[in-house]
Backbone:
C-alpha cells in the first residue's frame, strides 16, 4: 500500500522574498513527484501563486510538501478548502455541466451528484453555476 | 375522452385507499412490476402510481395578500426584499413572479450575471419562515389614504400566500447542446461550445405527464403534492400543447402538455421549494411536484410501466437555432442514454448533465406514496379534462 500513487491538488503561495527562488523543479528531481500546473498567477515583485496537481506515493507527497514549507512556501490543500453544503444541495446537476475534472460525478444508482474534493482543481465554475449556492470553492485568488 | 375505457374508477380506488387496501407504487417501481407481471397483471395488481419532478420551473409565482394596514393603503407598487411584486390586483393583493430580479441587480451588464436574489428566493424565504421586508406605495384615496408602508414580516403575518404557477410540470423537454463556438449561459445551464456537453431536464420515467400521456387521469381538480403540501391542478398550463410528436407508445417526444397548479404556501416546506439563480439567465424557482395516477385501465398500466429507455426527447441547439427561433432538432435521445452520462450527437460523443433532480423527484414520489398509504390521501376527481388528442391505440402482448 505504501507504494500506491495518490493525487493531491495544492495551492502554493510564494511571498515576494522567495518568489524568484527555483523551488518547484526539486519536487520532481529530489522527491520524484509528478506535478502538473493547473493554474498560475504571478504578480511581479509581490506574490506568485500556483495550483499544482501532485502525484506520488503518500510518503513522497508528505516529504515534498514538507520541503516546500521549509522553503517558506505557503501550502494549502485544495480539498480542505472546498465545501459543499449537503443540506442545501438538491442534486440537480447544473454543476456537472461545467466541471472540468472528475470532481463531480453523477451516480446513476443513487441519482446523487457525488463530490470528490480531492480531484477538484478549484476552477470555481461550480460555485458560479450552483442555482442554490450550495458550493463554496477555493480559487487561486482566495484570501489566505 | 370518449375513447377512454374506465375499468377501475377513481371512486373505487379512493374507497380502497380509505380501507387501507390500495396498492400504491412509485412510477419507478411500476417499471419492474409491468416487466414481471405484464400489463394486464400490473393493472390487476396496482391501484395508484405516484410520479414526481423537482426542478427549476419558470412561470411560477405567488399571490400574496398582506392584510389591511392602519390607516389603509391602496398599494399600487409593492416590493418584497426589494423584489417588485405586481400590485395591480387590489389594495393589498399582489403577485410575486419567480423570475422577477431584485432592484439594483446588475443583470447581465457583466456577463454572465449572477442573479443572486429574485422572486423565487422571496418565495423560499417566506416558506422557510424567514423575515422579509415589505414595502408598499399608495397614491392616496379617500378610502385608502396611506401613501407609504414598510414592515418586516414573515409568512405568519400575511393574510394569504398562495403559490400559483401558471406553467409547471412540462410533459417533456429538450436536451440542450451548443453548436456555436463560444460558451453560452442559458436556462438549460452552461453549454460548452462545439457540442462540448448536453443538458436535459425532466425526471423521465418518474415525471407526472409522461406517465399519463393523454391526460386521462390528470385534469382540473387533481390533488397533487406541491412544495410539500397538498395542492391542486387548477387548469391546463400555459403553452399546453397535446398535438405534438408522439412515439408508438403514445408518449410525447417533445414539450407537450403543461399544468397550472396552486397550493397554500403556509403549509409548504423549504425542502421542496427553492429559489434559484441561473448564471447569465436570471432568477427562478425550483418546484417539487408530485401527482398520483390512478390505474383506471390496462393502458394506464402500460404507460406508467414505460421506462427511461422508452422515453425520448429532442436534441436542440441553443447556440444558434433556439435563440433565432429556428425549429430544428439534431436527433432524439432516450432518457436512459442521457442518464448513462454520455450521448452521441452528429457523430460526436458528449457528456450529459441533468438539471432537474431525479434524487428529489424520487423522494417526493415516495413521500406521496406514504401520504396515500398512511394518511389516506385520496385522489382528486378531475372536473374538467385537459385538452388532448385522439388515442390511436397501443400494442402490448399481455
Residues:
Amino acid at each position: 500500500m505504501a507504494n500506491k500513487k495518490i493525487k493531491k491538488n495544492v495551492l502554493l503561495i510564494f511571498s515576494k522574498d522567495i518568489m524568484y527562488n527555483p523551488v518547484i523543479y526539486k519536487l520532481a528531481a529530489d522527491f520524484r513527484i509528478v506535478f502538473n500546473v493547473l493554474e498560475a498567477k504571478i504578480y511581479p515583485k509581490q506574490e506568485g501563486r500556483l495550483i499544482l496537481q501532485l502525484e506520488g506515493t503518500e510518503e513522497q507527497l508528505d516529504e515534498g510538501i514538507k520541503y516546500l514549507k521549509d522553503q517558506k512556501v505557503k501550502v494549502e490543500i485544495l480539498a480542505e478548502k472546498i465545501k459543499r453544503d449537503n443540506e442545501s444541495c438538491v442534486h440537480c446537476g447544473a454543476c456537472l455541466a461545467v466541471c472540468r475534472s472528475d470532481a463531480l460525478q453523477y451516480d446513476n444508482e443513487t441519482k446523487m451528484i457525488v463530490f470528490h474534493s480531492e480531484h477538484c482543481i478549484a476552477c470555481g465554475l461550480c460555485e458560479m453555476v450552483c442555482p442554490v449556492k450550495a458550493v463554496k470553492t477555493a480559487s487561486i485568488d482566495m484570501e489566505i | 375522452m370518449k375513447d377512454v375505457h374506465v375499468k377501475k374508477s377513481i371512486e373505487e380506488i379512493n374507497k380502497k385507499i380509505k380501507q387501507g387496501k390500495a396498492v400504491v407504487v412509485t412510477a419507478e417501481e411500476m417499471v419492474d412490476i409491468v416487466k414481471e407481471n405484464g400489463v394486464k397483471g400490473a393493472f390487476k395488481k396496482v391501484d395508484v402510481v405516484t410520479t414526481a419532478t423537482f426542478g427549476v420551473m419558470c412561470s411560477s409565482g405567488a399571490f400574496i395578500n398582506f392584510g389591511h394596514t392602519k390607516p389603509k393603503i391602496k398599494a399600487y407598487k409593492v416590493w418584497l426584499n426589494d423584489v417588485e411584486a405586481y400590485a395591480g390586483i387590489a389594495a393589498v393583493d399582489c403577485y410575486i413572479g419567480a423570475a422577477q430580479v431584485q432592484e439594483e441587480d446588475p443583470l447581465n451588464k457583466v456577463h454572465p450575471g449572477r442573479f443572486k436574489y429574485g422572486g423565487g428566493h422571496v418565495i423560499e424565504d417566506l416558506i422557510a419562515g424567514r423575515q422579509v421586508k415589505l414595502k408598499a406605495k399608495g397614491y392616496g384615496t379617500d378610502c385608502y389614504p396611506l401613501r407609504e408602508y414598510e414592515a418586516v414580516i414573515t409568512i405568519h403575518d400575511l393574510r394569504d400566500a398562495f403559490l400559483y404557477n401558471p406553467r409547471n410540470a412540462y410533459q417533456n423537454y429538450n436536451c440542450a447542446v451548443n453548436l456555436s463556438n463560444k460558451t453560452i449561459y442559458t436556462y438549460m445551464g452552461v453549454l460548452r461550445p462545439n457540442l462540448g456537453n448536453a443538458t436535459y431536464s425532466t425526471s423521465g420515467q418518474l415525471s407526472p405527464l409522461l406517465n399519463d400521456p393523454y391526460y386521462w387521469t390528470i385534469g382540473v381538480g387533481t390533488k397533487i403534492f406541491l412544495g410539500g403540501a397538498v395542492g391542486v391542478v387548477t387548469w391546463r398550463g400555459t403553452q399546453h400543447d397535446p398535438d405534438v410528436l408522439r412515439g408508438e407508445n403514445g408518449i410525447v417526444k417533445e414539450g407537450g402538455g403543461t399544468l397550472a397548479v396552486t397550493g397554500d404556501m403556509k403549509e409548504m416546506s423549504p425542502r421542496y421549494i427553492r429559489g434559484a439563480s441561473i448564471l447569465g439567465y436570471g432568477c427562478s424557482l425550483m418546484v417539487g411536484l408530485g401527482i398520483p395516477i390512478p390505474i383506471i385501465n390496462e393502458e394506464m398500466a402500460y404507460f406508467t410501466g414505460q421506462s427511461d429507455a422508452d422515453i425520448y426527447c429532442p436534441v436542440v441547439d441553443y447556440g444558434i437555432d433556439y435563440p433565432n427561433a429556428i425549429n430544428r432538432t439534431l436527433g432524439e435521445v432516450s432518457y436512459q442514454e442521457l442518464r448513462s452520462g454520455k450521448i452521441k450527437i452528429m457523430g460526436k460523443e458528449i457528456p450529459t448533465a441533468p438539471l432537474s433532480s431525479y434524487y428529489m423527484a424520487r423522494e417526493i414520489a415516495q413521500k406521496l406514496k406514504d401520504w396515500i398509504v398512511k394518511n389516506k390521501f385520496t385522489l382528486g376527481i378531475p372536473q374538467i379534462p385537459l385538452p388532448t388528442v385522439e388515442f390511436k391505440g397501443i400494442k402490448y402482448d399481455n
